[in-house]
Structure formats: C-alpha cells, structure tokens
C-alpha cells in the first residue's frame, strides 16, 4: 500500500488535518499553480458524481496536470466482467494517482492493496468520503474561526450518509457537541455512537428538528436521504421528505450559524434559504476545489511552496 493514499479520514492525524487546512488556504490564494507538470491522474468513478469528480478534475487542470478516467463504468471493460483488481492494476500502469468512487464499502481500501500507486477515496458506499470531510472542515474553520468546541447538528440520513460518518470521526480531535437529528429508520449507526463514546464526544439524538436545536447550533449539516442505498423503495418513500430546512426556521438562530450540505440536495433545504447569509453550501462546494488541490499534492508528495 502506498502510504500517501487517503482511504479513511481516520488515516489523518490532527497535525495532518491542520496542515491540509493551511495548504487549502494557500491554494485558495494561488489556485492556478502549475506544479503537476508531467503528472497524470486517473479519475475512476463507478458511481455518479458532480462535485467530487469535477472539483478533483478542475484541481488537476489548475495545477497543470493531465487526467484520464471515466464517469460511467458502463463505458469500461468492468461492464464485460473485468474485476476491480484488474482495472486498478491496469490503470496503475498509466497514472501517478488514482481517485476512485465506488458503490462497495471497502473498495478504496482494497484498491490500495493491489497497487503501489496512491489512491484517494472519493466515496465508498455508505462508508467514507474523506475528501468531502476535509473540505467540510475547511468550511467550518473558515466560517467559525476554529474547529474546537462547536455545536454541530447533523440532520437527515445519518445511517447511509458517508459524509456525516467521516465528519464525525474527524471531529474527534476538536471536542464537538453533536446533535443527531434523524427518523428511527435513519439513525446514526451504533458503531459511530460507540466511536463517540470511546473518544469522549458528546452527542444527543432526536427525531425532532426542533427550534431549540436550530437556535443552539453553530453548524447545521443537512444531508440527502440516500435513495441509492435503500433496498426497499417503499421505505425510501416514507422517509425521504421528513426534514426540510426553511428560511423561517432560522429567525432566532445564532449569528455565526452556517448551513452546510455536501450536495446534491433534493428537498432537505428549501430554496428560500439560499439567499440567507447563513447558507454556505455553495461556498462549501467551492472550498472543495482548494482542498482537493491540497490533497492531490499531498498524495503526490509535491510541496506547493517549493
Ligand atoms: N458531495 C458530493 O460527493 O457530491 P457529488 O456526489 O456530486 O460528487
């Protein structure tokens, strides 16, 4: 395994997280820094994506590297039955870095076991989405001026939402107070609550997205109900629209509150929130470009400052 791969957010120490935040800040100031001359990056997206793939590819372009890859695995030989192992071994012959999204939990870890090329996990099933977490941390840091001692409310699909799983794990260094708001069917899985207990992370659970919770939050992190992870379509229909944030619900919220969402949204945030200065989800996606420039350089062991 290449030690510069990023598979799980738990691969990163506090020191490394803080270093990457600094690097992202540097790239926000210098987004077009041509330091990937001669490097080829493979983007292998076995699952749909807009932001993650396009921001990684924009990052490579802005840094002067080249990209090969696919956005639809049906156009590749995996549709003829080629295994993931063979695909990864083949692509490793061509590229310096693999960025991969896959529907199977553990697929990114498996990829690192069959190649010496560094791999960045761009989302594996309901498991992890570490580059999203790094841009979330950058967004929280930029808007709150700190990462520690924040009241963070996670709302929606806490069962299948890989972004909330990764974020929860990353926050272990920063003494958060979490509120988990979800219906019975989509509660935060037991292993993540156990993780909180093991790391002294405070959390409460509620099925009610109450005024009290909204008005005492520094960050509200809305999530989409992950239709693609349900085996029972009726269950999806029953829970898909249970939590919608509307502008009128924010009247007494904290002045520093920011609304985050990894996007895409469906009905979780009413468009009437978009013009509220507390809405931050589009800037959050923009921060993804700077953070992904930092993550690519880190995986390739390139120091942007020379
Ligand atoms: N946030 C996120 O992963 O978005 P995409 O699915 O569009 O990449």
Polypeptide structure, described:
By secondary structure, the protein is an alpha/beta fold. The protein has two domains: 9-128 and 288-299, Rossmann fold (3-Layer(aba) Sandwich), CATH 3.40.50; 130-285, Rossmann fold. 36% of the residues lie in helices and 15% in strands. It is built from ten helices and nine strands. The strands form two sheets. A five-stranded parallel beta sheet has the order 7-6-5-8-9, covered by helices on one side. The longest helix has 20 residues, at 281-300. It is globular, with a radius of gyration of 19 Å. The model has no long low-confidence stretch (mean pLDDT 96). Phosphoric acid mono(formamide)ester is lined by residues 49-52, 123, 132, 262-264.
Mind sketching the topology for me?
Layout: H1 14-29, E1 40-45, H2 51-62, E2 66-70, H3 84-92, E3 97-102, H4 107-114, E4 119-124, H5 130-144, E5 151-155, H6 162-170, E6 177-181, H7 190-198, E7 202-206, H8 211-215, E8 219-222, H9 233-239, E9 258-260, H10 281-300
Parallel strand pairs: 1-2, 1-3, 3-4, 5-6, 5-8, 6-7, 8-9
Helix pairs in contact: 1-5, 1-10, 2-10, 3-4, 5-6, 5-10
The protein binds phosphoric acid mono(formamide)ester.
């Amino acid at each position: 395994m290449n030690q510069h791969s990023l598979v799980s957010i738990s691969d990163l120490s506090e020191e490394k997280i803080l270093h990457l935040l600094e690097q992202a800040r540097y790239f926000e100031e210098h987004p077009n820094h041509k330091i990937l001359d001669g490097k080829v990056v493979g983007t292998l997206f076995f699952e749909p994506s807009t932001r993650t793939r396009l921001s990684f590819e924009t990052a490579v372009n802005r840094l002067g590297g080249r990209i090969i890859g696919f956005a639809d695995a049906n156009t590749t030989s995996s549709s003829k039955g080629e295994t993931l192992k063979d695909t990864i071994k083949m692509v490793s012959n061509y590229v310096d870095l693999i960025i991969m999204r896959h529907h199977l939990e553990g697929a990114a870890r498996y990829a690192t076991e069959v190649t010496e090329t560094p791999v960045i996990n761009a989302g594996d099933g309901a498991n992890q989405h570490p580059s999203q977490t790094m841009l979330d941390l950058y967004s929280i840091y930029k808007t709150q001026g700190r990462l520690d001692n924040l009241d963070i409310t996670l709302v929606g699909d806490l069962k299948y939402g890989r972004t909330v799983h990764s974020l929860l794990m990353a926050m272990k260094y920063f003494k958060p107070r979490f509120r988990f708001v979800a219906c019975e069917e989509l509660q935060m899985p037991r292993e993540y609550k156990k993780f909180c207990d093991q790391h002294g992370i405070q959390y409460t659970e509620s099925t009610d997205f109450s005024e009290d919770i909204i008005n005492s939050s520094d960050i509200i992190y809305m999530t989409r109900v992950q239709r693609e992870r349900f085996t029972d379509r009726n269950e999806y229909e029953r829970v898909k629209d249970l939590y919608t944030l509307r502008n009128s619900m924010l009247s007494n919220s904290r002045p520093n509150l920011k609304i985050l969402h990894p996007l895409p949204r469906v009905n979780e945030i009413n468009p009437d929130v978009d013009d509220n200065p507390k809405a931050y989800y589009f800037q959050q996606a923009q921060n993804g470009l700077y953070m992904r420039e930092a993550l690519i350089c880190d995986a390739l062991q390139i120091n942007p400052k020379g």
